[in-house]
Amino acid sequence: MSSTAQELIPPEAREPARARPTKSGRVRRLSGRDKVVLALMVGIPTLIELALVWLPTLMSVGLSFTRWNGLDLADIRSAGADNYQFIAQDYPPFWPAVQHNMLWLLFLALIATPLGLLLAVLLDQNIRGSKIYQSIFFAPVMLSLALIGIIWQLFYQRDNGLLNFLLGTAGTPQAVDWFGDSSVNIWAALVAATWRHAGYVMLLYLAGLKGVDPSLKEAAAIDGANAAQTFFRVVFPAMRPINIVIVVITIIESLRAFDVVYVINRGTNGLEMLSALVIQNLVGEGQVIGVGSALAVVLLVISLVPIVFYLSRTFGKENQA
Amino acid sequence: MSIAATRPARHDASTHARAGSRPKRHYGTHIFLVVMAVMWLVPLGWSLFTALRPVASTNEHGYFSVAGDFNFDNFIQAWTQGGFATYFWNSVIITVPAVLLTLFLASLMAFAVSRVNWKFNIALLIMFTAGNLLPPQVLAAPLFEMAKHLEVPYSFSDSGNLLNTYIVVIAIHVAFQMGFCTFVLSNYMKALSADLTEAALVDGAGIWRQYREIIMPLCRPAFAALGTLEVIFIYNDYFWPLLFIQSGNRLPITTAINNLQGQFLSNYNLLAAGAVITVIPTLVIYLLLQRQFVAGLTLGSSKG
Fold this sequence. Notes:
- The structure holds two protein chains of two kinds.
- By secondary structure, chain A is an all-alpha fold.
- Chain A is built from 14 helices and two strands; from the N terminus they run ααββαααααααααααα.
- Chain A has two domains: 110 residues, no CATH class; 142 residues, MetI-like (MetI-like fold), CATH 1.10.3720.10.
- In chain A, helix 9 packs antiparallel against helix 10 and helix 11 runs antiparallel to helix 14.
- The longest helix of chain A is centred in the first third of the chain and has 32 residues.
- The N terminus and C terminus of chain B are likely disordered.
- By secondary structure, chain B is mainly α.
- Chains A and B meet through helix 1, helix 2, helix 4, helix 5 and helix 6 of A and helix 1, helix 4, helix 5, helix 6 and helix 7 of B.
């Protein structure tokens, strides 16, 4: 899912909000009926948000300190920090999963995101067919990651996949099962994820580049800056707000990486990811809710870093204003 | 990056003097873009190519050939025998109410936090925005257990609890997407002039009338963009139905295609046709509502 940090505000809103002198007066003028209406307007969404998002989050933390098979509520037993000790010391897929999440982040940050930026910069020029290129690079963003897993499966298969045919290895013993071979499948999955991520980054940067004041570039050119200097010293820093959004999206996408690996092999055999391990412990035969929750809490704690960073950037300014 | 950094000023007469050296570099750009575009299209093209060929042709001539028939038989078979008609309908049942409810509730919340001033506004907005950024797997265990242990009459759900119902999937989509929509809509509403509702207040309009008759109509562009985006997000969601829905014939299409890998074992043509069918609705929306979709993703991401 890509519903991460697209920071949105209508174009009309770019001018700073004007002070409203009548603010306090307005509140006082609310009638009794208005107060009831407002209470419902705030109350119903807040209740849903608390009950279905924040309460479960807290319950995950609580369950991570228990031992439970998920059957009878009366069977929940306190387990102290045992689950955490177990995943760190005795749960073989845990450290590979942490490594794979890191690798996912590095690959998106160092390859997919710069590729998206490169495409945006190239397409922002007045070149012929720019719209067609944009549509092509953007198309995978419309697809679900689950579907991307299937489409690339057709491309990567050992015997009938296009890639092995293009490499001339189809049907020979050298043919690689790109999604099945645990030494390469994480890279194959990363290429598939890049296919989508780069288009998304391209789109955001295209919007960002259009928002950069052209006079900045002209001023840099007059000062004798070459194209590279203009871009890296003037244009790129001017896109700071977009850069922040993209940093946050990249980190959060790499923590959320789930669909692709789960579609391929449920996140096993070379494709262990934290999110997939959470689910493996919840479904299937041996339900170990405590262990799954401990993994979820690890994921939560790591996620809080980009979330807090993003929120302080977004709402910190608003408080000062 | 050196190609990237070449940014000729557009439509600028004063740069014509330097134009001589620039078009050359454009060839490099075009070659790079064409190569990338071809690489981008190959996986989709290969799926479509495979889907259009009957399995008999590929068995006879191999997958890497152009010989044999091309027709829509795989699509017809996937739609009728593969259950795609059912899956597609399930997607509609989940997506339509979820998007409408999300937009409605988010607009209420956004109105309250952006048009009425009280001290918890920012705290509430932070809570909503942060909720949307959490990885869904963090909440999976408690939500699954809540749905499993909440008993409902069998007339309501044949499992006796909320597992395997559309309600629970819709509810969680609403809760999860509401944060994002509230954030976007509140920014949009904040930008509307305060005088609008002031004038209405003077006329004696209550809060509900301000919301209904003044703010809502002005937010139409934001609703169009967000609605398009949310339809795609929810249609494309794989995880929540995977968690809550166990009987295969109730799955929405995005989650169901995964089952086909087992079901259509080694009939890659049929699997490819299923994949292409799943893509079609998003592509239609993209082609028809491209502007709304792109606007939804980028609306003022240049906020400072």
